[in-house]
Design brief:
Blueprint: E1 2-9, E2 16-18, H1 32-36, E3 40-45, E4 51-58, E5 67-71, E6 74-75, E7 82-90, E8 106-114, E9 128-134, H2 141-145, E10 152-158, E11 165-172, E12 176-189, E13 192-194, E14 197-199, E15 202-203, E16 212-215, E17 217-218, E18 222-224, E19 231-234, E20 247-249, E21 253-256, E22 259-262, E23 267-268, E24 278-279, E25 284-285, E26 295-296, E27 320-327, E28 330-336, E29 348-356, E30 363-365, E31 371-373, E32 383-387, E33 394-402, E34 415-421, H3 426-429, E35 431-434
Antiparallel strand pairs: 1-12, 2-5, 3-4, 4-12, 5-11, 6-11, 7-10, 7-12, 8-9, 8-11, 12-15, 13-14, 14-17, 16-19, 18-20, 21-22, 23-24, 25-26, 27-28, 28-32, 29-30, 29-33, 31-32, 33-34, 34-35
Length: about 425
């Protein structure tokens, strides 16, 4: 892509000025005043009868011509390489009688770098020649009669430039020329959004083969992918090359075109690694936009180890069909699984043993002197044997089903219970309590 520093075509090139070179050895025969008046601003019509303004010079009868036309000072901004596009017409010397040896079919293009405006006079020794410009096509007297312009286009490059600005200058050495259009520009890569990263306007490098590396800035609500920062290279021709790395939408946001939009109500996105928002799992909700997780409904919970995409769950109901068998000071308990596992598959069982007094009926925990086979808590099977109980004592056993969210619940515990008396007949001691 290109950006114009200055462009004038068909408007009389008003940013040019006819300038007089200071007296320089090697250019005798033409005074400064005479050279100043050689270039003329002319209004005319092109071959399509469109009004144009040009600068013309046609001093072909006398030798040693040195006629200069110079721009005003041009600020280059951040540019380091400048391009100059010239459109011009040039008269065929063979079509002009009596000019053999004095007529030329080329002119010279110069530039001069400077940090400020140096005034109107030209010091020729400060100017650097860019090139000698020749026409691919020259016109004749017949072309004038047929209104054929035979326009030539030439592009030249200047650089790398290091100062704040520059002048351009044309030197006529005895040709019949009309400058129709001059465009001065530099190339840059225009601002672009790629992979959710913003790459700003970037001026091309100082060399034809140079690449300018640019690091992108993530759009709003996006972040750089881990260890993969977004980068692109601006080529010398003003084109962005293949992108490296990318940005991704943050938790609670998903990509839509070149932006990150928030998840809607009832949706969530828990991680930037996820591509899209997801609907809230069962028994959960999000009541605001941009949610990274969904909250559980009342009575439902999410265990710390549960990923955000699983449904919220609740504690299981009490075990069913609790029975026991007593053998002196040993009690065996068996039960059936709960009717409702709370929506989870991690149900286990735990046993609470209480010893109760004969008189007041008060109960206290059994303590550590009794044994459980296979264990008291974390039971995956639905049976347990309790050993080393005291003889002729009253005991109550509570069997509770638990899962991953039971300890998060604030509701009343649900369990099956049975009370026994050691050392007495089974038919006299059975009492089952269901809660």
């Amino acid at each position: 892509m290109t950006t114009h520093l200055a462009s004038r075509g068909g408007q009389g090139l008003p940013f040019w000025e006819r300038a007089s070179p200071e007296a320089t050895p090697g250019h005798p025969g033409v005074s400064a005043r005479e050279r100043l008046e050689q270039w003329e601003e002319i209004s005319g019509l092109d071959e399509n009868y469109t009004p144009i303004r040009t600068y013309q010079v046609c001093q072909v009868m006398e030798p040693n011509q040195n006629n200069w036309l110079r721009t005003n000072w041009i600020s280059k901004g951040n540019a380091q390489r400048i391009f100059v596009e010239l459109k011009f017409t040039l008269r065929d010397c063979n079509s002009l009688p009596g000019v053999l040896g004095t007529c030329k079919e080329t002119f010279n293009l110069y530039y001069y770098e400077t940090d400020y405006d140096t005034g109107r006079n030209i010091r020729e020794n400060l100017y650097v020649k860019i090139d000698t410009i020749a026409a691919d096509e020259s016109f004749t007297q017949g072309d004038l009669g047929e209104r054929k312009m035979k326009l030539n286009t030439e592009v030249r490059e200047i650089g790398p430039l290091s100062k704040k600005g520059f002048y351009l200058a044309f030197q006529d050495v005895g040709a019949c020329i009309a400058l129709v259009s001059v465009k001065v520009y530099y190339k840059k890569c225009w601002s672009i959004i790629e992979n959710l990263a913003i790459f700003p306007d970037t001026v091309t490098g100082s060399e034809f083969s140079s690449l300018v590396e640019v690091r992108g800035t993530c759009v709003s609500s996006a972040e750089e992918e881990a260890e993969n920062s977004p980068r692109m290279h601006c080529s010398a021709e003003g084109e962005w090359l293949v992108p490296i790395g990318k940005c991704i939408c943050k938790a609670g946001f998903q990509q839509k075109g070149d932006t990150c939009e928030p998840c809607g109500r009832g949706f969530y996105k828990s991680s930037s690694q996820d591509l899209q928002c997801s609907r809230c799992p069962t028994h959960s909700f999000s009541d605001k936009e941009g949610s990274s997780r969904c909250d559980c409904e009342d009575g439902y919970y999410r265990a710390p180890s549960d990923p955000p995409y699983v449904a919220c769950t609740r504690p299981p109901s009490a075990p069913q069909n609790l029975i026991f068998n007593i053998n002196q000071t040993t009690v065996s308990l068996e039960w059936s699984p709960p009717a409702d596992n709370g929506g989870r598959n991690d149900v286990t069982y735990r046993i609470l043993c209480k010893r109760c007094s004969w008189e007041q009926g008060e109960c206290v925990p059994c303590g550590s002197n009794i044994g459980y086979m296979p264990q008291q808590t974390g039971l995956e099977d639905n049976y347990v044997t309790v050993m080393d109980l005291l003889a002729h004592a009253n005991y109550t056993f509570e069997v509770e089903a638990v899962n991953g969210v039971s300890d998060l619940s604030r509701s009343q515990r649900l369990f099956a219970a049975v009370s026994v008396t050691t050392g007495q007949a089974v038919e006299d001691s059975l009492e089952q309590i269901w809660s």
